[in-house]
Amino acid sequence: MYMILSCLQIHLDRVPPEAIFVENQSLHTRENAEYVLTWLKRYHLSHVILVTSPFHQLRTYLTFAKVFQLHGIEITNYYADTGEWHPVSWFLSKEHRKLVNSEVERIKLYKAKGDLL
Length: 117
Prior knowledge:
The protein has helices spanning 29-42, 57-68, 94-113; strands at 3-6, 47-52, 74-79.
């Protein structure tokens, strides 16, 4: 059984509804990972498919990996289709460059706090 965390739209035609858990109470990425870990432990799950926007994936993965590292939880990273974002041409958009720069700054902050693997 897999647990799916969604920050954006999930393609429900590919995943049975009973396998989808959406955590929407957290205020930041580390808290999100901690809440998900609670669910994983409660349901004795050892694999999560982490779904988030492409520009947010690295920080999300590193944060979840840090929280899960002592629990043997496997993470499969999967990016959500954001419509406008494309992994090959994102840098052509000023808005997308700002998003990436913002993520780079957050990665630095999270790393300094010890929240990243």
